[in-house]
Specification:
Layout lengths: L6 H40 L8 H85 L3
Length: 142
């Protein structure tokens, strides 16, 4: 059987696709982690079970909430950056998959052509054997 001439390129494209899939997976994980952190911070910010006892406690609580709000703003910015990175990773994975699929289709077509050629050669051999047998029977040879 003839080997696929683009087998090396196909291996390379599959490696590139695997790398793009890994990058996409990391981007999804980052987005989920940031969403989890933002949700936890929102819960902390909306928690009103702490009743201030005095003026200094009230000021400390206000400072903590202001700090948490600023951190939440930074976290939202990180989420936007992560969403953009995720979109980029999705596009890169899609492009890598499309390239791999194209070469896989060429490989499939090559395999079909090789199989058809092998069947054709087998048929030629069978025809030749049958022709010899027929000629031998016609001539009276065993």
């Amino acid at each position: 059987m003839t080997s696929f001439p683009l087998a090396g390129l196909l291996r390379l494209r599959r490696l590139e696709e695997d790398q793009a899939a890994a990058t996409l997976s990391r981007a999804h994980a980052r987005r989920r982690e940031l969403a989890r952190r933002a949700d936890a911070m929102m819960i902390d910010l909306t928690d009103t079970t702490q009743a201030p006892v005095g003026r200094s406690t009230l000021l400390a609580l206000a400072a903590a909430r202001a700090s948490a709000s600023a951190l939440l703003g930074e976290l939202r910015t990180e989420q936007e950056v992560a969403a953009a990175a995720l979109a980029t990773a999705q596009e890169e994975h899609r492009a890598a998959r499309a390239t791999t699929t194209t070469i896989e289709k060429l490989e499939e077509r090559h395999d079909q052509q090789v199989a058809a050629e092998e069947l054709r050669q087998e048929q030629v051999g069978l025809d030749e054997t049958a022709t010899r047998a027929w000629a031998a029977d016609r001539d009276g040879r065993p």
